[in-house]
Amino acid sequence: MPTAVVTGASRGIGRAIARMLAIEGYDLCLAARSHDELDRLSDELLEVSSRIDVATFGLDVTDAVQVRATARAIGDHLGAVDVLIVNAGIGAFGAMADFDLDTFDRLFAVNVRGVMLTLQAFTPALQAAGSGLAVVVSSDVSTRVFPGGGPYCATKHAVRALARTYQQEHPELRVLELRPGATDTFFADTDEGDAGPGHLTADEVAAALRGVLRLPVHVRPEELVVRSTAQTPEF
Ligand SMILES: NC(=O)c1ccc[n+]([C@@H]2O[C@H](COP(=O)([O-])OP(=O)(O)OC[C@H]3O[C@@H](n4cnc5c(N)ncnc54)[C@H](OP(=O)(O)O)[C@@H]3O)[C@@H](O)[C@H]2O)c1
Hints:
binds NADP nicotinamide-adenine-dinucleotide phosphate; Rossmann fold; seven-stranded parallel sheet; two-stranded parallel sheet; 6 helices; alpha/beta; 9 strands
């Protein structure tokens, strides 16, 4: 059985990716702060695919001690991690002029420090898999900005830099920067289903990733941008 870890698996894109991986037959370790929600998801996934193993971990990705302990526990449980989905993240938007600095710090703690800690902690488990794949969920805004998006875009530019540097420092691994456009999730205090037309669904993002995961392991997928046709093309 291939193995995968998903951070931020309790809802939104992470949850949809976890469901896709379960259907693809991966043994799963799911992490997020909402442990009860993960346990509900685990029951749901085992109904979808009874042949897989699902373990859940309450985890705050900003806490270095927790991240390292969870990575050790997952390493012991799975042995090796074929696919690591570095997905946990938050959104907050507003003009820079009066952007709340506690929110600014929180954005960087979850979106940047959390990614750094997760990649550091899971490197041995990815290496144990041979050519393990780290999927770092950034955003289509990891190369652009917009008014009201300064702090969030800055975190995603930073995530892109971390993902690319990590790939160069670990050529034995594969690192994919997954860059979804606007997606209908619980992101930035929204409710799934509220976003309306013009947004991708989380399942559509997961379906795009599924195609990449089916590639042979000698293929190095470096970047996947997936956006609704309602968004202005970037090229
Ligand atoms: N929605 C979009 O338009 C969009 C577009 C491009 C990229 N993205 C990126 O996609 C990723 C997932 O976002 P989403 O849209 O699916 O949002 P979401 O529905 O709000 O889900 C966010 C997930 O991250 C987890 N999380 C948040 N803070 C955490 C922490 N400190 N420690 C551990 N887990 C934490 C949440 O779980 P708990 O609250 O249970 O911890 C939840 O499972 C993020 O990195 C986001 O930046 C989103």
